[in-house]
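Because discrete structure vocabularies remain unfamiliar, we first show an illustrative case, written as a sequence plus integers encoding its fold.
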Amino acid sequence: MSNGYSEVVETARDYYNSDDADNFYFHVWGGEDIHVGLYDGPQDTIAEASRRTVERMCSLTENLGPSSRVLDVGAGYGGAARYLASRYGCRVVALNLSEKENERDREMNREQGLADLIDVVDGSFEHLPYEEASFDLVWSQDAILHSGERDKVVGEVARVLRPGGDFVFTDPMQADDCPPGVLDPVLQRIHLDSLGSVAFYRESAAKHGLAEVQVLSMPDKLTTHYGRVREELERLRPTLEGKVSDEYIERMITGLGHWVSAGEKGYLNWGILHFRKRTS
């Protein structure tokens, strides 16, 4: 496997580097922010709802400024990094495994005049190439699910955080009381054996010296978002000819349906999790 990535991470890298996935996430899922959105109502676009998630997460952080260093792990197209850099003037590392997404990220940074504040790095969050206590804030949105070693990711985050630094992230998760086997249709389509859970992240964080600040569970937002993405994909399908294959679109419509169904049955969770590195 190239770059020493684990098999699960390499699979995710290959997927997000594909033309089908790149064009789907860029043209359908919002382009700037490719994660679960917070919807106020049916009038909200995917992009508006996704940006609201960034703003909500940002409201949990404190004391960010030009001297702050932020690491976004699994940064996608870098929308959150640009928001943080433009709002606070902080320096942000946008670490992401898809070289194709990173090319779009760098281009948008240049277009928005933020290239000097944002360093886009090709890499995996399972092996962070930074020294201990390097960052004031580690941020992640709907990315850690793609690791087969999520406890290792949390440990790496804790290692690079300074004492008192914050870890703010979201992740599609299974419910703490999810019965075995019911998520197989979801997991098979995204090539995973499991999802994390709030209970798992609480246990992992505590083990690695991260204290819980707040956990905001909002499973309905996951179901709403995946349903909205499926609707938008079907609406935009005629405009995607030549960009996204029919086979990919059919698989995505089916896959999104599995997420919605599992969410409606109470098997899934999603939310904003906030932990802080202990100072002693």
Observations:
- Strands lie at 69-73, 91-96, 118-122, 135-141, 161-170, 173-174, 210-217, 268-269, 271-277.
- The chain has one domain: 2-271.
